[in-house]
Give the backbone structure.
Amino acid sequence: MRTRITLACTECKNRNYDTTKDKKTHPERMEIKKYCPFCRKHTMHKETK
């Protein structure tokens, strides 16, 4: 079953993206490089609760 997660920018701490992930295949927290509209550049985004 896929669960809904929120991704937050590591630089400005804004929560920018909502997505889903499969907890069976990826039990650890997700970290992905995405565009932050507040920083106006690509930054690392981490999964938040």
